[in-house]
UniProtKB/TrEMBL annotation:
This is Nuclear transport factor 2 family protein. InterPro entries: DUF4440, NTF2-like_dom_sf. It holds the Pfam family DUF4440. Residues 22-127 form the DUF4440 domain. SUPFAM superfamilies: NTF2-like.
Amino acid sequence: MWRYSLHQKEINMNREQTGQEIAQLALTWATAELQQDIALLEKLLANDFVGVGTLGFLLSKQEWLARHRSGEMKYSVHALDEVKVRGYDETAILIGRLTQEATYRDNPINTQLRTTLVFIRQDGQWHLASLHLCTIGSPPSFARS
């Protein structure tokens, strides 16, 4: 019994540490997006990264980075908050709120999004493998109590 409790405490401490590490990494990602730091984004994104946009479109790592390289995507605000992290061995899932003030091809994108970031650990390093963005809205009237 004592060994189990000690082992469980160790697992809980590791999960908490992983959660803090992932939350910090997500903030690093958000800042790199804001600053169009392509070199850092290149390191943070997994090679097989897939981003799911608000309208369901998919972007590969190279397509995601191309938005910054071309200068078509520009942020004045790219802030992540309401962060919750769950860790599973070599995977961590973060759900948060992303506030954006941006332009894409000179079209304004000022919105709050719910985002899910999926991180994987490869060769001892965490990488952003996928993200999904959706507009935050209210439940439909039939679902409200």
